């Protein structure tokens, strides 16, 4: 290689390193303001970021998320193991080890999850399967439409062995499963204490961690059970504070979900994407959190201990000329917000309500003047703001 070629190669390498160092994140803080920043480090002191103004350290309690901008949803490759704590591990089963499922999660590696914390296995993260209902036995729905019930007695890299109450064990390969919902353990589902952070990884995996540390362009994770994992920052799509002031409704399971089309159709609610599976956008801004619905839709969420204020915005998905909906938000049985004949091209004002002492919040989208034609609405960043006593510093 001559001097000129060596200089060009070195310049390209230096530029690539500079681009990695200056990779931009959207920082969202607990006042819902956002800013473009470069991540310097994460440690016990908080999150250190830099922008054109300078470098600053933010206490973790004030950070909602650090997220890379994405123009399309993650491509899912593998099944999704779901936990009661909200983790979504995209990958493949490995084995049943005592009372734990060992699962290979894309971008993270092998993760051991107590079986009594697992709610089910889904074909896709947007599946509408009811993970929260009580079940006396494990229930598998196959891609053929058939249903098999029994108890999972073994797990290997070949799939799940399901043993019916009467009959021989059946091995269900990963390719054959549309969903596998686990039985409710005696005494109810065991939910681990909330972890400090949730890390989202390319490929769709989201995993809770008690601690993360960033150094040398890598993120070190302390996983539940004391296991560790190291992920290149290039694979990290977002880092969220699980114990901060903001709790996204799209990360919670609704206690009731109703969808009633006016004409024939099938558009169940989708979480963190529009009802047709696209990113949630408005006015050139892409939102990481939201719920895509189609009229008529009614979603009810339980108010959890520590929830103090409900907050959301909403808009019709895309430039839909015929879209026309009636929107309502209820706290318990009281309508606290209503908008009739809501059309596309408009971002609603912030809807906010005190939920102290309330039991439920219900989000309704009803038919407008054009029946249900193009009535695709996105609830944008619906969230509960939690009291200071329930957040960790």
List keywords for this structure.
disordered N terminus; 1 helix; 3 domains; 50% strand; 8-stranded antiparallel beta sheet; globular; mainly beta; 393 residues; SH3 type barrels; 10-stranded antiparallel beta sheet; Jelly Rolls
What's this, in brief?
This protein has one helix at residues 3-21, and strands spanning 24-29, 34-43, 46-51, 54-58, 63-67, 79-83, 88-97, 100-105, 109-114, 118-122, 138-142, 147-156, 159-163, 170-172, 177-181, 197-201, 206-209, 211-215, 218-222, 228-232, 236-241, 246-248, 256-259, 270-271, 280-282, 285-287, 290-294, 297-302, 307-316, 325-331, 334-342, 351-354, 360-367, 376-386.
How would you explain this protein's 3D organization?
The structure is a single chain. Helices cover 5% and strands 50% of the residues. The protein has a ten-stranded antiparallel β-sheet with strand order 9-8-7-6-10-15-11-12-13-14, with no helix packed on it. An eight-stranded antiparallel β-sheet has the order 4-3-2-1-5-21-16-17, with no helix packed on it. Strands 22, 24, 27, 29, 32 and 34 form a six-stranded antiparallel β-sheet that branches. The chain is globular.
Overall pLDDT confidence: 84
Q: How is the biggest beta sheet arranged?
A: 10 strands, antiparallel
User: What is the count of DSSP helices, taking H or I runs of 4+ residues?
Assistant: 1
The number of strands is 34
Q: Give the spatial strand order of the biggest sheet.
A: 9-8-7-6-10-15-11-12-13-14
Structural class: mainly beta
Helix content, binned percent:
under 10%
- The first-to-last residue Cα distance is 55 Å
Radius of gyration: 22 Å
Share in β-strands: over 45%
What gross morphology would you assign?
globular
Number of domains: 3
- Low-confidence runs of at least 5 consecutive residues: 1-21
